[in-house]
Design goal:
By secondary structure, this protein is an alpha/beta fold. The chain folds into 2 domains: 5-43 and 288-396, Aspartate Aminotransferase, domain 1, CATH 3.90.1150.10; 46-283, Type I PLP-dependent aspartate aminotransferase-like (Major domain) (Aspartate Aminotransferase, domain 2). Helices cover 43% and strands 16% of the residues. The chain has helices spanning 5-8, 14-27, 46-57, 70-84, 99-110, 125-134, 153-159, 182-195, 223-228, 253-264, 272-283, 287-309, 344-355, 379-396; strands at residues 33-34, 93-96, 116-121, 137-142, 164-170, 198-202, 229-234, 247-250, 314-315, 323-327, 334-336, 339-341, 357-358, 360-361, 370-374. The strands form 4 sheets. A 7-stranded mixed beta sheet has the order 2-8-7-6-5-3-4, sandwiched between helices. Strand 5 (164-170), helix 8 and strand 6 form a beta-alpha-beta unit. The longest helix has 23 residues, at 287-309. The radius of gyration is 21 Å and the shape is globular. The termini are far apart. The structure holds 4'-deoxy-4'-aminopyridoxal-5'-phosphate (PMP) and glutamic acid (GLU).
Length: 397
């Protein structure tokens, strides 16, 4: 059998793979602390679950419009008005099976062979693979730790060419937790507008910010930027609904129509009764969000302090999302029980074998001197996991 070339270009997702591996080891009774999963460990709020059950019991189990039911689009429109001062019509909204699905559809309808798509490294792994799948060439802006892993305006300007078709912005960012200030977004916005660059603004971690930065959506800065921006968001991270698979995009009618046509021939609508639950998530009480955010902040503070106290590790204090991106370069060039620890992959392997701790190697995000810790896990597990790494480091370094 010969696979299509595009299938051979795609790497498996390390972020999903690590989580699967931890689950497999735990099911075999092996005690592993997983810092891999990029998903809240909290349960979905009860009132959201109850709405899904109600919708199921009432027989809301048929196909819906591909781009989402009217009430959900209205709830999304209200969310954009409330949180981002953005006004959209239903034709400018699509609901997909997760934000990942909206991103995939968007990149497929925008990019093709001969195009260039700009993204910052460290990047979320799926952006790169989606760009490759579209046939376009990924053009990477290597951001630096000393710049807070932010794209500097001059670096963006330098990467723009006549072939530039798309830019991807992600704030708060996965994997670094970087949050751009409104001033920084405005500076990038000027370049985007001057060069007419279509931009995807992935705002999925919008509600998980621990500093006093008030997030501003690129699309809200001017009419021109609104027309150039496709905003991506979803319920996975905000409402602890990762498994429910609801994400959405807002942008020009033309792009949303093309994404809907593509979705028509792949998944059709996102699950009918889950859409009803998403309406309640967006329109319902938002107080549980604050409880979750406060808990994440406590864990972040603890994890950042501990990571920086460990020999050979250092990290910035991330303002958002639920990841700590730790520099581990000083731990390389060491043989531990026959394993040559020489990069982020071998270090992650060593920690899993010798300390029973799982992290995502920075290589997955185009930054091999780093590993990603997710603090979307209990305080006790964070403490135990870091204790184990400390013991291992004290023993071998
Ligand atoms: N964007 C970023 C930056 C993410 O980390 C994730 C996490 N999965 C997604 C999009 C997709 O989220 P989902 O498909 O669960 O809505
Ligand atoms: N986005 C999360 C992560 O980076 C979930 C896994 C995924 O969708 O890749 O871990």
């Amino acid at each position: 059998m010969v696979l299509a070339k595009r299938a051979t270009l795609i790497s498996p997702s390390l972020t999903l793979g690590i989580t699967a591996k931890v689950n497999q080891l735990c099911s075999q009774g092996i005690d592993v602390i997983g810092f891999g999963a990029g998903e809240p460990d909290f349960d979905t709020p009860v009132y959201i679950k109850e709405e899904a059950i109600r919708a199921l019991n009432s027989g809301f189990t048929k196909y819906t419009a591909t781009s989402g039911i009217k009430e959900l689009k209205e709830a999304i429109i209200a969310k954009f008005q409330r949180d981002n001062r953005l006004v959209y019509t239903p034709e400018e909204i699509i609901v997909s099976c997760g934000a990942k699905h909206s991103l995939y559809n968007a990149i497929q309808v925008l990019c093709e062979k001969g195009d260039e798509a700009i993204l910052a490294s460290p990047y979320w792994n799926s952006y790169l693979e989606m760009i490759k799948l579209s046939g376009a060439k990924p053009v990477i802006i290597k951001t630096k730790e000393k710049d807070g892993f932010k794209i500097l305006p001059e670096a963006l300007q330098q990467k723009i060419s006549p072939k530039t078709k798309l830019l991807i912005l992600n704030s708060p960012s996965n994997p670094t937790g970087t949050v751009y200030t409104p001033v920084e977004i405005k500076a990038l916005g000027r370049i985007i507008a001057d060069n007419n660059i279509m931009t995807i603004s992935d705002e999925i971690y919008e509600k998980l910010i621990y500093s006093d930065v008030v997030p501003v959506s690129l699309a809200s800065l001017s009419d021109k930027l609104k027309s150039l921006t496709l905003v991506i968001n979803g319920v996975s991270k905000t409402y602890a609904m990762t498994g429910w698979r609801i994400g959405y995009a807002a942008g020009s009618k033309e792009i949303i129509k093309a994404m809907t046509n593509l979705q028509d021939h792949s998944t059709s609508n996102p699950v009918s009764f889950v859409q009803k639950a998403a309406v309640v998530a967006l329109n319902g009480p938002q107080n549980e969000l604050e409880t979750m955010r406060q808990e994440f902040k406590k864990r972040r503070d603890y994890m950042v302090a501990r990571v920086n106290s460990l020999k050979g590790l250092s990290c910035l204090n991330p303002d958002g999302a639920f990841y700590v991106f730790a520099n581990v370069k000083k731990l390389f060039n060491k043989n531990i029980k026959g394993l040559e620890v020489k990069d982020s992959l071998s270090l992650a392997e060593c920690w899993l074998n010798e300390a029973r701790v799982a992290v995502v190697p920075g290589a997955a995000f185009g930054a091999d001197n780093y590993v990603r810790f997710s603090y979307a896990t209990s305080f006790e597990k964070i403490k135990t996991g870091l204790d184990r790494i400390e013991t291992l480091i004290n023993k071998y370094y």
